[in-house]
């Protein structure tokens, strides 16, 4: 698992993809999903929607393509390295775009290896006002029972509220925290500013989860691989018990 994730992240961190310039990372993710047996579809602005097999109700995993980077970061991306001693990807003086390449890597890994049904939504222009997710048609969510956005810093946060919107029930949160403990990850509620989750929660219970990046939008950003692996395990465990998590949300 670790070796494969390192390979995916090395490719993603080498692709310069600030908002409105996401084409190279879109192409990589599209091809990766096709090779893994998925049916990705791109809309007119570059959002990617995918599923592998149809099911009446299934979870959704969400991440975004675009990063906060400057032109001066482009040429330095090739120097991004993984340090096995610290289990980190970092690149001194360069924004490598961990937000949200970490979320993309997690979903791509699950798309290849997890056999439990789920849908995928990768969006464009999240960093400049969550513009991409607002272009997704309502009927895309018609068969979605709940959603995880994988786009939060740190190792243990659950974001379940943005502004005036409570995005899931207490029962959903408690069950998810239970799942986290069973996979060695102590998830705790935290506060955040804005993410795609805000709009997705208009259609289904939704949360935003930590994926192990730190110092986002700065030249000190880095990715902790062990933290990412822990949340992938929680996501996989949740996908395997999707109906249990859905029912907990309805009951609480």
Would you give an account of this structure?
- There is one protein chain.
- The protein has 252 residues and is an alpha/beta fold.
- It has seven helices and 13 strands.
- Strands 1, 2, 3, 4, 5, 6, 7, 8, 11, 12 and 13 form an eleven-stranded mixed sheet that branches.
- Strand 9 and strand 10 form a beta hairpin.
- Helix 1 packs across helix 3 and helix 2 runs parallel beside helix 3.
- The longest helix has 16 residues.
- The chain is globular and about 50 Å long.
Offer a quick outline of the entry.
It contains 7 helices and 13 strands.
Notable features of this structure?
single chain; 252 residues; alpha/beta; eleven-stranded mixed β-sheet; two-stranded antiparallel sheet; 7 helices; 13 strands; 22% strand; globular
Number of strands: 13
Number of helices: 7
**Multimerization status:** single chain
Sequence stretches where pLDDT stays below 50 over 5 or more residues: none
Largest sheet: 11 strands, mixed
Blueprint (SSEs and pairs):
Blueprint: H1 2-13, H2 23-35, E1 41-42, E2 48-51, E3 58-64, E4 81-83, E5 88-90, H3 98-113, E6 119-123, E7 144-153, E8 157-159, E9 161-162, E10 165-166, H4 170-182, E11 188-190, H5 197-200, E12 206-214, E13 222-224, H6 225-240, H7 242-251
Parallel strand pairs: 3-6, 3-7, 7-12, 8-11
Antiparallel strand pairs: 1-2, 2-6, 4-5, 5-13, 8-12, 9-10, 12-13
């Amino acid at each position: 698992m670790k070796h494969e994730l390192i390979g995916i992240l090395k490719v993603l961190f080498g692709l310069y993809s600030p908002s409105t310039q996401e084409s190279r990372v879109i192409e990589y993710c599209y091809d990766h999903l096709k090779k893994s047996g998925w049916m990705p579809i791109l809309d007119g602005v570059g959002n990617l929607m995918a599923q592998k097999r149809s099911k009446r109700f299934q979870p959704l995993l969400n991440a975004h393509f675009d990063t906060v980077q400057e032109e001066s970061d482009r040429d330095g991306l090739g120097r991004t390295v993984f340090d096995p001693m610290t289990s980190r990807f970092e690149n001194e003086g360069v924004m490598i775009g961990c937000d949200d390449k970490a979320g993309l890597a997690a979903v791509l890994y699950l798309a290849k290896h997890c056999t439990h049904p789920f849908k995928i939504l990768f969006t464009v222009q999240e960093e400049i006002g969550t513009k991409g997710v607002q272009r997704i048609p309502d009927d895309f969510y018609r068969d979605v029972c709940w959603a995880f956005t994988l786009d939060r810093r740190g190792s243990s946060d659950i974001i379940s509220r943005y502004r005036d919107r409570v995005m899931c029930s207490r029962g959903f949160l408690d069950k998810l925290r239970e799942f986290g403990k069973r996979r060695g990850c102590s998830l705790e509620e935290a506060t955040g500013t804005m993410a795609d989750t805000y709009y997705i929660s208009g259609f289904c219970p939704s949360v935003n989860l930590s994926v192990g990046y730190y110092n986002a939008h700065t030249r000190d950003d880095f990715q902790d691989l062990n933290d990412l692996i822990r949340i992938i395990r929680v996501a996989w465990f949740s996908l395997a018990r999707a109906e249990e998590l859905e029912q907990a949300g309805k009951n609480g």
